[in-house]
Amino acid sequence: MMLQMARQDVVANNLANVNTSGYKKQVAVAQAFPNMLMSRLGEIEKNSQGEYEPAPVKLIGGLGTGAVVEKIYTDNTMGNIRKTDNATDLALNNDGYFAVLTPQGERYTRDGQFKINNEGTLTTNQGYPVLDIDNQTITLEGEFMVGENGNISLNGENIAQLKVVNFENPQYLQREGDNLVAAEEEEIILENPGILQGYIEESNVNAVREMVELINVVRAYESMQKIVQAEDEITQVAIDQVGSVS
User: How confident is the model at residue 31 (pLDDT cuts 50, 70, 90)?
Assistant: First the structure.
């Protein structure tokens, strides 16, 4: 039942982010606890001489001891690319992450729905500055163009290059909220990340599939709950009736 509750939390979080740009859905993978080997022992039987002696151990078989969430994996498949014609909307057409600066240090995101704040700095929707390849913030004034390699040009002159990175093991990235992830391993700077200006990457969550998964999780939980209730009723009957004098 606790496993199903954990699965429900994951599915509910996916559904809550079905419209979050660049969001990658998560999948809870379960594993069984080690089986318990059961044997029949402690019995006494007569041998051919009529003497009592311990009976040989008889193997009954394995007994499952439950299941637990083994790991929560991230599905890193790309979401649909949607055209917005907004100059500050950027989509990554390849693997990789935009680098942004937060109070906790450098973090990464695939959400390219950026904006320009009052100081002219390119930021995320949460206000975190987007970094260039030199780990500096980017200041923009007027109309600008962003090339596929991340070069930002203003009036035909390159003024900065977006920092887009990737990692050898994206599954080890740690989610921190605000559609950001943190990394412990060394980043790999991408020279040609395939940036599309005027587009955003939508969430890769399929709402219909997640609703079906949620229904399956709830039904599994309810089935196990009925088993527990039945076991309670049997135990209550044993307490009330066994040993009673009619």
Answer: confident
Instruction: Give the CA dihedral 9, 14, 19, 24, nearest 10 degrees.
Output: 140
Contact 133/98 with Cβ under 8 angstroms? no
Q: Helices marked H in the chain — which ranges? A: 2-16, 207-241
Q: Are 110 and 22 in contact (CB under 8 A)?
A: yes
The answer to the question of residue 112 being in a domain is yes
Q: Kind and range of the H or E element at 97?
A: strand 97-102
Q: How far apart are CA 105 and CA 155, in angstroms?
A: 32
At 188, list the tokens: 């790999």
Instruction: State how far the Cα of 99 lies from the Cα of 128, in Å rounded to an integer.
Output: 10
CA distance linking residue 74 with residue 221, whole number of Å = 24
Alpha helical stretches, state H, 17-51: none
**59, 105: one domain:** no
Instruction: Give the amino acid at 173.
Output: L
Q: How far apart are the first and last CA of the chain?
A: 39
Residue 160, domain extent:
81-201
pLDDT digits (tens, 9 = 90+) for 165-210: 999 998 889 999 889 999 988 999 998 899 999 999 999 999 999 9
Query: Residue 215 in contact with residue 97, Cβ under 8 Å?
Result: no
Residue in the block written with tokens 């014609």: 85
The domain total for the chain is 2
In a domain, 206, yes or no: no
